[in-house]
Amino acid sequence: MAKKTESSQFQKLQQQLQKSFTIIQQSVKSWQEFLIKCKPELSSIDNLGEQYICCKEAPEYMIPMLNNLPDLKDKLLYKITTEINMKVEDIQLEMKCFKNVCDRVTKQCDYSMDLYRKHADTIHMNEITERTATFPSIVDMLEWIQNTERLFLQQYPLYKLWVDKSFTIIQQSVKSWQESLIKCKPELSSIDNLGEQYICCKEAPEYMIPMLNNLPDLKDKLLVTKQCDYSMDLYSKHADTIHMNEITERTATCPSMADMLEWIQDTERLLLQQYPLYKLWIDKKTLVSLRF
Amino acid sequence: MNLTGSARKLKDTAVDIHNLAQKWTKYNNEGSSIVSSVANVKLQNVEKTDDDTDQSQEFPKEKMSLELESLCTELTELIQKMEKLALKFEAIVNMCKGLNELESYQMKQENKEGSKVLFQTWTLEDFESTIQELYSMYKTELQVKKSVLQNICHTEHKNVLMFYVAAWVHQPYIEDRSKLLLESMLIETGHK
């Protein structure tokens, strides 16, 4: 240790790493704050989504006021959709804070790596790989810092895509997809699977909210992959018999089947990318937090 | 500047309409919580009848009808207040019509055509059409509220209950345009 303290480059590197980790710690904090801030918005989106589905599914013959006010249902659905969009916009604004966090982490990673590269030739390999009881090795710390950066950089676009696509609409669309499939092709025998798909997909977006705590559930959510495969198989099986117009046609209340297939594929891709990331995050997080 | 005649009347009217809209929003919020409570009571009952045995059903049903009755009385009183607001609104619309007719009569007497700009850009006709449009939104909305009151207690279907609650809370007939109209009227009359 006495030898090491003599090496000023080594010390500089150590100081830089300490500084970076402190900043990363703050960044993680603001990221968590961002998630907490979004929670009420997300739950109101969820609530509005439920209202939308209930209103859409309410049997019209049981609502006598629709006789006098035939446009009530459409107007109501429009109002709810407008409100959902407003909430999604709020979250999109909050995403800016997430972007700042990402930038800060990237900057710190760059500083540390640059400093390391600058002195890589002069610092002895033993020095940078040696661990003590109270200090992890420089190599370890550099690896952690790079992993953290990578995680943030991968998370940000994913979140952005997720918010842009608005998960509530995914929820609704899977349901409408189920309906339109029943309407279009009554002979399809795998309709039972669709019910399962709906439940799986419906539950999938919710895990985005409580984040890290829900890791054990993540694996179950990957069932979506299977469901996505079912849907794509079903589509390719009947692709020749269903007319293109049917697949691409949108109505005011129901998105097109092509849209929905794209969404379910996006959902699957997101989940598949998220799972290993989260797992890595949790594994590393315990380690990193020990060193802070 | 001391305003007189139609301009004075319209400036005061703009404030009246603004106050009416605010009171309406207040009543609507009060009503939202009542309607949600009604829906909760009904939903609880639907769940209970699914779970409970036949013997224990009598008491909750009685309790439910008492609760519902008091909630409905509150809601009826609230709707009566809203109806009064709508009546005031109607009086304002009639007054505007009167002013417009008076102006066109005066113009005829003076052998002039078109109508005068009272404040910055709007004529009396513009005011009349704006107020009329706002009134028709509130009038239809009142109809929705009355229908909700009439029907909400007589359904057991969850989605239909949610439909009524949403129809009350979101006010589908009071369009976003109403805010624009009201704001433009306040700006036009120099209140903002």
TrEMBL record, chain A:
Top-level division of the source organism's lineage: Eukaryota
Database matches in InterPro entries: CA109-like
Protein name: Dynein heavy chain linker domain-containing protein
Organism of this sequence: Tegillarca granosa
From TrEMBL, chain B:
Coiled-coil positions: 61-88
Record keywords: Coiled coil
Keyword Coiled coil: yes
Name recorded for this polypeptide: Cyclin-dependent kinase 2-interacting protein
